[in-house]
Amino acid sequence: MAPNPPPPEEYPEACREMLMKFSESVEKLGENLFELLSEALGLNSNRLTEIGCADGHVFFCHYYPGCPEPDRTLGHTKHCDPDFLTILLQDQIGGLQVLHDETQWIDIPPVEGALVVNIGELLQLISNDKFKAAEHRVLANCSTSPRISVACFFTTHFDPSKTLFGPIKELSEDSPPLYRETSVMDYIDSFNTVGLGGVSSLARLRL
What we know:
The chain is an alpha+beta fold.
């Protein structure tokens, strides 16, 4: 969707205008969130946007059909998002869970009109573990209605840039860098090779 969106005729006609408007709105929201996250790290408010965290975003649209035997399957296995930040729009069906203290799955019930924001592994990397990526999954549902969600990933993994990202220097002055530098492309290649449920690509970069 950004920085190089497809031409409008490539969008499905039924949701073309809506997707384009939503992309513009979620991009502005992401920029605001990166400003707040920069300040939370004790940095200048534009620090995360300066290094490229908001340079691109993509949509992943999910359709989970109703399942007559949800206890026999999963909608989406546990994982952390391979991006800087995720903004999730979900319907009212539910099923999203986040792992708490590495032991307990907590339901994230939908709130009408609200968005869910996840920290991604690339933000954990550049923050030198000041922020932690949220491990989550989606349960299959027994509803007769499908679950539909739209996840906006702030990442540039469709861009061939070889820009390297590593722990921000200001955040590793009091503690050594915890990760090696990587490009987004190399990180995504590693993520796709490992697959979900395997050893985290972030763990492979740990020093």
